[in-house]
């Protein structure tokens, strides 16, 4: 089910619940991604982000000690524009309007409600990557 050069892309997954992280990684592999990095919070996510330079980030909102909103705020404020503008998709069970609005203010690229399906994830990734490419091209 691969396509769109997914096998060449690097994905960083931030999710504190191991069983959900494993599901997301399995779905990403089914979509066609080969290089997937996993962490359980935003602090480790920042370290891994700077180490592996991912092409896409999939991030839970609620994690400790650094959650998804703080993680997104931190990367959006980095001086390196290639990192600051990385596509980020939030994966969360939180549909609270304040959380959604804050995520939009921080320029989240997509939002997927848990539990996630293969079709949902692939559709959102396709959309986010196409929009990101269009913005980059001008």
From TrEMBL:
SMART domains: REC. The modification 4-aspartylphosphate is found at residue 60. Keywords: Phosphoprotein. The keyword Phosphoprotein applies. GO terms for biological process: phosphorelay signal transduction system. Pfam families: Response_reg. Residues 10-129 form the Response regulatory domain. SUPFAM superfamilies: CheY-like. Gene3D superfamilies: 3.40.50.2300. The keyword Calcium does not apply. PANTHER family: CHEY SUBFAMILY, STRESS RESPONSE REGULATOR PROTEIN 1. This is Response regulator. The lineage of its organism: Bacteria, Pseudomonadati, Pseudomonadota, Alphaproteobacteria, Rhodospirillales.
């Amino acid at each position: 089910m691969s396509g769109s050069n997914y096998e060449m892309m690097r994905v960083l997954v931030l999710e504190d619940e191991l069983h959900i992280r494993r599901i997301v990684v399995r779905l990403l592999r089914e979509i066609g991604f080969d290089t997937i990095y996993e962490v359980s919070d935003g602090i480790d996510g920042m370290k891994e982000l700077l180490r592996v330079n991912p092409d896409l980030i999939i991030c839970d909102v609620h994690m400790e000690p650094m959650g998804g909103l703080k993680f997104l705020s931190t990367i959006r404020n980095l001086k390196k524009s290639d990192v600051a503008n990385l596509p980020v998709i939030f994966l969360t069970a939180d549909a609270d309007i304040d959380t959604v609005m804050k995520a939009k203010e921080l320029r989240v690229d997509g939002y997927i409600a848990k539990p996630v399906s293969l079709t949902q994830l692939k559709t959102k990734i396709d959309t986010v990557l196409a929009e990101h490419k269009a913005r980059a091209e001008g």
